[in-house]
Design a protein that fits this description.
Layout: H1 2-10, H2 13-19, E1 23-25, E2 36-49, E3 52-67, H3 70-84, E4 89-91, E5 94-111, E6 116-130
Parallel strand pairs: 1-2
Antiparallel strand pairs: 2-3, 3-6, 4-5, 5-6
């Protein structure tokens, strides 16, 4: 599901125009290309019933944006939200039954000795099923 989730984001023209291919699982790349996005599965499970798995997944996905300006972070955050919130459809081998924005923690500023940047963080509830188990 995570690979198809990434493809869903990366395949959106508005998101691609802002971050190109800088969408990473779990951690930002070592290069300081900005803006960029990281995503990760925070929690999730496959449903069960008396005869085993029902093949339905219910996950919480976190998306973090890093950018050099607050306006850039907001633009990426808004493009991702526009693509994902309320989305239902197929990407790769995953049918996304519904994706809904759960939490938008806004934009923050971070500074280290080596760099400074703005971040935005979003959580999405993702209900899905695998098309070809």
């Amino acid at each position: 599901m995570e690979t198809d989730f990434r493809s869903l984001i990366a395949g959106d023209p508005a998101v691609a125009a802002l971050v190109a291919a800088r969408i990473y699982p779990s951690t930002y790349a070592q290069a300081k290309d900005n803006p960029c996005v990281r995503y990760r599965k925070v929690t999730g499970t496959i449903g069960l019933h008396m005869r085993g798995s029902d093949g339905l997944g219910d996950d919480l996905m976190q998306i973090d944006v890093r950018a050099l300006t607050a306006l850039s972070a907001i633009a990426v955050k808004d493009a991702i939200t526009a693509k994902l919130h309320g989305f239902a459809g197929v990407s790769g081998n995953t049918e996304f039954l519904v994706i809904g924005l759960r939490d938008d923690r806004g934009v923050g500023f971070e500074k280290t000795d080596a760099e400074q940047f703005y971040t935005a963080s979003l959580d999405f509830n993702v209900s899905w099923r695998r098309l070809n188990p």
